[in-house]
Design brief:
The complex is a heterodimer of chains A (131) and B (200). By secondary structure, chain A is α+β, with helices and mostly antiparallel strands. Chain A has helices at 2-19, 38-41, and strands at 34-36, 44-55, 61-71, 75-85, 90-91, 99-103, 108-114, 120-128. Chain A has one domain (31-128): Sandwich (Immunoglobulin-like). In chain A, strand 2 and strand 3 form a beta hairpin. In chain B, 20% of the residues are buried. Classes of the chains: A alpha+beta (131), B alpha/beta (200). The interface between A and B is medium-sized, with 26 and 29 residues. Chain B: Pfam families: LpoB (PF13036).
């Protein structure tokens, strides 16, 4: 009797364990490095987007990105870079706000941003038109 | 009498309805108007440029491994506004700490320690009231390697019917062992607006 109830108990436990939801494991979702607001595309074109890792004296390296815009008319833009580690988690920088810039007709301007931590591996550049 | 009270109440309600509603501003998505005075966006810009440049230059990367210890020295406010320069230096400190390359000491300062508790906690030494195993030992405080100093300048000009206000945020990072400035940066913030605007 005791053995029977133990067997039933074990079977129930296994059944419950089988029903438990499996841990949600997703792979790293691919992010586009460049996110440009369509309104901005009328007034300027992003012509370059480079990235490099700068060697540091302590042996680590820091990700740096540079982009260039060619202006078709005098325009304002606002840009910011979001930084991510190897797991796709966001790494906080100094501030979350957009940086504003002006570009003149026919002008090419270069903008640079440096990652806040050596563990940053990827980034997303946002360009939009300020209101 | 009742008529007057009704008119008064209606007037107050009308005025209250016209008042601008108070709302939260999200610093990550703020397209609000720009003030002639220095606002939080200016400090963010200056701090971001300074920290990114410091990190990219390698000036805050210790070749012997480990983190540099930084102390915040004097940041002079040479503007017509009452600015607490901590608004700028705190952002830089936080970002450098997050970078894993620099840690700031609060036990030393030009006008005394920023946090006097480091020394106060040591006054418990030899006190019979305290378990001495938990009291800080002699020679454990860390001396700084780097010092952050600077100046915020303001210049006003009249340009036609407008005024131009120029702010210059100048910062230096000095290696205390040699007295040499390992890193220096300047962020100009130029604003042009109505002559009626006040920049102080």
């Amino acid at each position: 009797m005791k053995l029977f109830s133990k067997t039933i108990g074990c079977a129930l436990l296994l059944l419950l364990a089988g029903c438990a939801s499996q841990p949600h494991t997703t792979g790293v979702i691919e992010r586009d490095s460049l996110q440009v607001d369509p309104d901005v595309l009328y007034s300027m074109t992003v012509t370059e987007l480079f990235e490099q890792r700068i060697r540091q004296p302590d042996g680590t390296s820091i990700l740096q990105v540079q982009f260039a815009v060619d202006a078709h008319s005098d325009a304002e833009l606002a840009w910011k870079v979001s930084w991510f580690d190897a797991n796709g988690m966001m790494v906080k920088g100094v501030a979350d706000g957009y940086r504003r810039a002006s570009v003149l007709l026919g002008q090419t301007r270069y903008f640079k941003a440096t990652a806040p931590h050596p563990r940053v591996t990827t980034y997303q550049l946002h360009i939009r038109e300020p209101q | 009498m009742l008529k007057r009270a009704i008119v008064l109440t209606a007037g107050v309600l009308m005025l209250a309805g016209c008042a601008t509603q108070t709302r939260y501003v999200d610093p990550a998505a703020d397209d609000g108007p720009v003030a002639m005075t220095m606002d939080y966006r200016d400090f963010e810009k200056a701090a971001t440029e300074a920290v990114e440049d410091m990190v990219a230059s390698g000036a805050v990367s210790n070749p012997n491994g480990g983190r540099y210890i930084m102390v915040v020295s004097r940041v002079t406010n040479d503007t017509m506004q009452r600015i607490d320069t901590d608004q700028l230096t705190k952002k830089i400190r936080v970002a450098l700490l997050r970078s894993g390359k620099v840690v700031t000491t609060t036990a030393v300062g030009l006008n005394g320690a920023e946090d006097e508790m480091s020394m106060a906690a040591r006054e418990l030494r030899n006190s019979e009231e305290f378990d001495q195993s938990g009291v800080q030992k002699k020679g454990t405080l860390q001396a700084p390697d780097l010092s952050l100093s600077g100046k915020i300048l303001q210049r006003n000009h009249t340009v036609g019917k407008e005024q131009q206000v120029e702010y210059y945020i100048m910062l230096s990072l000095t290696d205390l062992a040699t007295g040499l400035a390992f890193w220096e940066g300047e962020t100009p913030i130029i604003k042009r607006g109505s002559n009626d605007s006040v920049s102080w």
